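not sure who needs this but someone in the group chat was asking about 6-aminohexanoate hydrolase from Hyphomonas atlantica so here u go. i didnt clean anything up, its just raw.
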Amino acid sequence: AGVVSLGKSTTPEMGLTSTTEPLVTGATRNPWDLSRMTGGSSGGAAALVAARVVPFAHASDGGGSIRIPASTCGVFGLKPSRGRLGARTAAAPPVDISVNHAVTISVQDSIELFRVAETNDGTYAPLGEISALNRPLKIGFAPDTISGTRVAAETTAALEDVAQLCRELGHEVRDFSVPLDGKEFTDKFLLYWAAGAAEFAGQASAFSGKPVGPDILEPWTLGLVSMYQSRQAEMPETIAYLQAFEAAYDEWFNDIDVLLTPVTGSPAVPIGEQAPDGDFDTVMESVLNFAAFTAPMNVAGAASMSVPLSWSSGNLPIGSMFSAKRGQDGLLFELAMQLEIARPWMSRTPPVSAL
């Protein structure tokens, strides 16, 4: 499509965590506050876009890796529906959670990049022309995490403010209780995530010609591998549970069009809190508290986006996550355009900026 690549941005090792602090490069810092993380795994991409170095950057999302850094860096990020963009692979994993797209400053840039990469295999109708939404939606409002972890007061306040904005735009916003055993879902998803780490570790071992250890992989990655090895017998049950979840997710939308939740449990946390060489259990607790909202949409293959509508008292971005059923990417883009007009963010730039 004529795009010129300017380079490769940072990610955590193998994209396996919600911060971008790889030991090989050092931490990627948030342009809104250099003592804070950018989120992950597309943290380098989001930081570059937030700092206006580039207007957009490639990003991928297997558990929140577009939406989390978009939220923490104050840019727009939509996770497409499964199979919506790019060529399909012949050997898909048993639960295909990862998709590619981008983080952008404007909604329109995200739409144009989406059009360029659309799959034309007949599964979905083309995106077509998108304009700002001009009809009311039924929006489910769910400010609490599925697993019962704590949400920061400023995050809750920001989400309540966005819910009120949606009401003022004519939408019906209703309280919504997510019908999901969040602790069970989190446990199953985490084991599936750890299985991915084990697969990557096997590839690293084959490439290096020796068993992986701390000289090859980070402690966080090795901790996930160890988790998988201790629970490998549970994988058939885990896969069956996650495969059944897509139909269960669709039922959430029997009476609503869109679900509104936080993206993360708090604004960006300090550099080092989720460092890959920290104590595994302590880092895991922080990751689960922070990245507490995004994974269900990956398992369901659903469309979901982070919209930069709020900032904390400390001038840290707080994204709002709007999610829909699989294939409803166009609806989310329409809503995002409406929100961008109502509360523009383009001119709000971080202290560290190329402008």
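also The radius of gyration is 19 Å. if thats useful
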